[in-house]
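Example record

The entry below shows one chain as it appears in the dataset: sequence first, then structure tokens.
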Amino acid sequence: MLVLPKVITMEFPCGALALDVPHYIERPPIESQCFENLETPGSLTRIKGPRHTGKSSLLVRVLARAKDLNYQSAFVDFQAAEDSVYSDLARFLRWLCAAVARQLKLPAALDDYWDDETGAKLSATLYFEEYLFERVDGPIVLALNEVNRVFEHPEIARDFLPLLRFWYEQAKQGSSFQQLRTLVVHSTDVYVPLNIHQSPFNVGLPITLTPFDLRQSQQLAERYGVTFKHAKDHQALRALVGGHPYLLSIAFYYLGQGQLSLSQLLAQSPTPAGIYRHHLQACLDAMEGQPALIEGLQRVVTTSVPVEVEPAIAYQLSSLGVVVLEGSACRPACELYRLFFAQHGLHVRTPSADLQRLRAENEQLKALANLDGLTQLANRRVFDEQIKADWERAIRHSSVISLIMLDIDFFKPYNDTYGHLAGETFA
């Protein structure tokens, strides 16, 4: 049973915890390692963990430490970038450089340092060396949040991630990049194949956020005003959600506010009407359109022992936080996931025959609308769309666009002699 003090109004657990919020629980030695690495010239700190495990809250505290050290900080969240930013590397790096300059309260001045002839990667490097480092006195903390958003664009990731590694290596050689302290925060692992000597994910300080142990879980309960009279009550909750910081916080919130009893919480949680319904639905949404992940998780949650699944699938499920790896096998990360996904959530959605036929017909109509019926070449509609896209791209990059038009002399006599059908076929 629970012994609850007078109910104290508090905010529902959501997002990063501010410095003055008492619900942040330290996980030694993670914080001290991050603080120490922050003071190392040219350092790279990689903070990784599934969603809702405390990455953003830790980042808040590392940036606060940087402020105490009188470091300048630039926080860049890749979720804030529009999809068009990921259209090509040059546009992506220009967006990044402009975002960093804005955070440092500097004019962007991109065109003064950007040279399309030398390429986007070298231009970005010179921008940091000759502009940002020259105008900022002291270390610059570059905090890159939700880097997994970049992973979704392999053509960008293949160039950007080695660039981070290059900057790190430059600092090791005594260059001005010693002024940079890079924090990379991501919730999943990169699936873009990279040369081991180009990847930033095998250098620097790796920080992986682990579940709360029993002591940390007890601390969190106390800060929500929840006291367990019997150890078995706390054990029952941990048996359901393990040491997941976010799931524990939600449980302690409802218990601390007196909105649910422990028995009600335990009974309702693995159902679509329980307090974790939004979190569980988000897990399902993350697997939407990926039948291999759903099938792999089905195998895991429908057995009582760890099972082996394809390594790539197991790795992705682990990155989502729904399974825990045990050697070459995996098991549900907590009983909540086993119960919910086994009973309610997992269905591989395949389009019906009618929907598949409709999609095929739409593709056929699209092809017919874009091709000339006689020559089967792209028609005027396609030309208008392409020239518009190329024109806008040329404006963005201040580049030149060329258009060649050909005129065939004496074509009218050909048509008059052999007929217009023959002339169009020839053309």
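Notes for this example: The chain has a mean pLDDT of 87. The chain has four domains: 30-208, 212-268, 279-345, 355-426.
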